[in-house]
Amino acid sequence: MIKITVTVSMLLFVCSPCSQSNTKENSQSLMPSINDSYQGDLDDLRFVELQISAVMIDVQKYLGWFFSEKEMMKRASARAISDLGTIKDYLQKISFTDDLVGLRDINLTIIDMLSQTYDNIDTKQEEEIRQDFAECSEIYCQYIKKFEEYSQKQIPVEDLPEDLSLIHNTDPNAVGGMFDIEKEIHLLSEILDANEYSPLLLVTWYKWRAQKQLFFWGLSNRSNIPNWLYNKKRWKVVQTIKKHIETDPDDTWAKAQKKLLLDLPNVGRGGHFGNDALGMRKVYLEID
């Protein structure tokens, strides 16, 4: 079994065995629609980073579980290259201020490096793949350092509320509770899609993702994990919060909620008992 350690989106990706393509959806579904005049900010870069991570988690399945299945690897790598191309096109459409262009360019470099790594990956030896990921990880570490430096300028930690206990003061019935799972997931999704601000949006999204993964896709490291879908919903919620902040710029919890939402990593693989969904569900049950 091949093991490759790569740092992306504040996750430690150790490739371990897995299954088929994460989703049958067209790769265009990875990214939301934007117009040519769209002005991006630090949040957009984080969203792109999460979607790059989603592609990596898809390929991670094959690098671990099906490394000897060359046809599977070939199809998975072709899909990954296509998805990375979609993300790159999206990123290149966004206009950034001069101080963010450098971060955008590093993201573009990471996309290109990953695309090169995945190209003909079914013909590569394990050591060559490890080396490719190590080089990509080095660039990513530079990116994270610069991202964090800029982020601190934008939202100093001292400006965020010290007491985040609000996240614990939730009524289970307000965000679904423990009744029929399918109805609960539907209700959570409706709340998130309503475009209405709530101090519970972070908890609601977290629960929706955990329940969706657990009951629709499964807990196995071989399960499909549609992180791209979870991230698009996450991004929609971020937009709702940002609109609220425009009308109430003194709402420090809203700012903290947005930051925490973007900082949460994707659902990962490689755990001793399966993917991350079970642990996520345990966390939100403790919140209730």
Q: Which features would summarize this protein structure in a list?
A:
288 residues; mainly alpha; 2 domains; two-stranded antiparallel ribbon; 60% helix; disordered N terminus
Written overview of the protein:
This protein is an all-alpha fold and 288 residues long. The protein folds into 2 domains: 1-154, no CATH class; 159-288, no CATH class. The protein is built from 9 helices and 2 strands. The chain has a two-stranded antiparallel ribbon with strand order 1-2. A hairpin with a 2-residue loop joins strand 1 (5-8) and strand 2. Helix 1 packs antiparallel against helix 2 (70-93), helix 1 runs antiparallel to helix 7 and helix 6 crosses helix 9. The protein is globular.
